[in-house]
Amino acid sequence: MKRLIMCFLLASGFTFAQEAKVLTLAEAVSYALDNKADAEKSRLDIERGDAQIAEVRANALPQLSVSGSTTFNPLLQENVLPGEIFGLPGQSVRVAFGQEWTSNVSAQLSQVLFNQSVFTGLKAAKSTKEFYLLNHELTEEQIIEKVATAYYQVYQTEQMLENLQSNLDLTEQTVEIVKGLYDNGLAKKIDYDRTRVALNNLTSNRQQLINAVQLSQNALKFMIGMPIDEAIALPQETFDPGFLPEMNDDFMADRTEIKLINKQLELLNWQKKATQAEYYPSAAFVANYGWLGQGPEVPIWNGEDEGVFWGDMSSVGINIQIPIFNGFGTRSRVKQDKIEIEKAEADLRETKLALQLAYSNALAQLENSLITIRNQIENVELAQEVFNDTQNNYSLGLASLNDMLDAERDLADSKNNLTNARLDYKLAEVELLKSQGKLRTLNLNN
């Protein structure tokens, strides 16, 4: 019955694998860059940067505005004038000025002639766009790193399940051998029971690994933005170690983190110059044109027949503003800008040191993992030979059950150690490519 159930599970797994989408690392990365929310948000940040740049440029373009109003004056202000004006010497005459209704429409045009802050902002606009582009590039590299790590962890879990299935097959053979010897009176019942316990434990562990595979696949699908219910399968060759990546001592120049901090320093320097521009005078051209209507009725829809009269007016001029003293406010802001620049320079030094450490560690880990893989491959072969010999000796009565179970356990451990070593190699490969600024070439190595 157990063998029937296992055959059904294996057949179901085979059918599932046949229907699943085969997903390479390159396809996983490409899918993530197209669908992951972080990548989409960084692309939107670029569009937002374009809008911010357009906003800065708008300050240097002509500004045109139109305004209008209608006012009702229920009480007109009266002024007292000398009576001589009206031929009434020695008397004072109260005169109300204005009309009960006034309406006006005016247009104003202004153009910056000189404003150092605006000009500095225009120069910084290009750097702002480059900053958002670099930030988008860094976001994509972070996504690639996370996807690669999750991808290799899926393969590791699948490989461990395969190792366990192989060990399970060997244990089944052992159970059959011990059962045959027990049926013929050549083995003890306790030996048969011990092998059955070992088989049951492996069956339970297998179910746990099946669940772990599903969980790791779900984590990968979430990482790349793929629907969780979509079935995937990884190609067999993905986990094999490749050649050591090309070494590059001058790797700092290619790191996006360094480029991003340098661009941030450039923007901070532009900010300081924009603050210093407050010391400069500014000049702007201003032109106004208006149309004013007054009368005892609403001027908007009445004319001279109703006592409403309209007249136009205009003015042209240049506004000049010369800063003299603002309580040392500008000097304080410049000092704050300098402090921000110094902090960014400190971050740059710290980042370079951290990148050097990551590069050295990744290089050492990669070399050690490659050596470990070679040793573990040999160790798996030796463990397989030891198990085969021990199994034969047990059948001939030349080895104990403990020897056979130990050999079986050693074979399983050596296979898992090889799987872990391969994962360590791949993770170190990702870290090394990242430290060299070549993370985007990762899919070329698989």
TrEMBL record:
Q: Which N-terminal residues, if any, form the signal peptide? A: 1-17
Main localisation, per the record? Answer: membrane
Location within or outside the cell: Cell outer membrane
Q: Which sequence ranges form a coiled-coil region, renumbered to this chain? A: 154-219, 334-431
Q: Which family does it belong to?
A: Belongs to the outer membrane factor (OMF) (TC 1.B.17) family.
Q: Which InterPro entries match?
A: OMP_efflux (IPR003423), TolC-like (IPR051906)
Keywords in alphabetical order: Cell outer membrane, Coiled coil, Membrane, Signal, Transmembrane, Transmembrane beta strand, Transport
Identify this protein by name.
Multidrug transporter
GO annotation, cellular component aspect: cell outer membrane; efflux pump complex
GO molecular function terms listed in the Swiss-Prot or TrEMBL record: efflux transmembrane transporter activity; porin activity
- Provide the species name: Salinimicrobium marinum
Q: Which Pfam families match?
A: OEP
Is ATP-binding a UniProt keyword of this protein? Answer: no
Name the Gene3D superfamilies on file.
Answer: Outer membrane efflux proteins (OEP)
Q: Establish whether keyword Coiled coil is in the entry.
A: yes
